[in-house]
Amino acid sequence: MDDGGTKPSKLKSVWGALVPIGLIAPILAMLIFLISGSGCDPKDNEAIANLRAAVGNPERSDAARARDEGRLPVKVLSTFGVSPGMTVLEVGAGRGYYTEILSGAVGPSGKVIAHNTPSGYYKNYISATFEPLAERLPNVEARVGDLSSLDLPDNSVDLVMIFLIYHHMHYAKDEGEALPIETQRSLAELRAALKPGGVLAVIEHAAPDGSSRAHSAALWRTHLLLPPELIVEVDRVLLEASHA
Fold first, then answer.
1. What local confidence, expressed as pLDDT, does residue 59 receive?
2. In this predicted model, which residue has the larger pLDDT, 4 or 89?
3. Residues near 159 by beta carbon (within 8 Å), at least 6 away in sequence
4. What is the pLDDT of the chain when averaged over all its residues?
5. How many angstroms separate the CA atoms of 36 and 12, rounded?
6. Is the distance from CB of 28 to CB of 206 less than 8 angstroms?
7. Is 113 helix (H, G, I), strand (E, B) or coil?
8. 157 close to 113: Cβ distance less than 8 angstroms
9. Amino acid 185: pLDDT
10. Strand 14-20 relative to strand 87-91, pairing
11. What was the pLDDT predicted at 51?
12. What is the pTM of this model?
């Protein structure tokens, strides 16, 4: 609550929904967290047109286009309300599949902060594709470093998108079945960076029913033993951050 002496909470309401994506393998699900409001209208004609144009951009590689049928970028990004002028933080941008589409969708008045962690995998398999792509997109700011090093200003981002990275965040061997402390900190920092009405979106593979965190992490899947619990644990972190 706003007592007049502390920063007002942006977290008026949190909505968590587990939404299957029909054309993707059955284990893939989309987990959306909507923070304080509804973001941009996903039915906005201009936004949809920009998304379609971005997906249809002839500069996109054949390899990227081959992923469109399974990833449904227009459907996914319109659900998140992506539209011109937005600032988007992409956590775990990988080779830049979504980076390139987001760049076109937010347009010259928008910005994409594309983050990757400087792991051995990044250096050996990601950087040679991601870095040249980011360099040719004028509204993309590439960030390679630990998530904690982003140091984004509060209220500066419209959308945080975590794409197939949460399975690396939801489990730590020495912390067992609890949400790792470091992940709680990261979620709180990401939440602080969101503008009022901003969206935190997680796209992730779902582990088989009954999986523990340890088992699902070993499969590069996300712990969905009890989907409401996953929603609740992230909601709790975000709610606590909003009153910090």
1. 96
2. 89
3. 39, 80, 81, 82, 86, 87, 88, 89, 198, 199, 201
4. 75
5. 5
6. yes
7. strand
8. yes
9. 84
10. unpaired
11. 95
12. 0.76
Question: What phi and psi values does residue 239 have, to the nearest 5 degrees?
Answer: -65, -45
Rounded Cα gap, residues 203 and 92, in angstroms:
11
Local structure of 58: helix, strand or coil: coil
pLDDT at 227: 37
d(CA 196, CA 158) in angstroms, rounded, equals 8
List the domains of the chain with CATH numbers.
Answer: 19-48+72-242 (3.40.50.150)
CA pair distance 76, 65, nearest whole angstrom: 15
Give the tokens for residue 148. Answer: 């904690």
* Ramachandran angles phi, psi of 17, nearest 5°: -140, 135
CA dist 226 and 142 (Å) reads: 35
Q: What is each CA distance from 212 to 43, 204, 209, 215, in whole angstroms? A: 38, 16, 9, 5
How far is residue 229's CA from residue 227's CA, in Å, rounded to a whole number? 5
Region 154-165 average pLDDT: 89
Nearest-angstrom CA–CA distance, 20 and 164:
15
Higher local confidence (pLDDT), 178 or 238: 178
At 176 the pLDDT is 74
219 or 141, which is more confident?
Answer: 141
- Decide if 140 contacts 99 (C-beta within 8 A): yes
106 vs 74: CA distance, rounded Å: 13
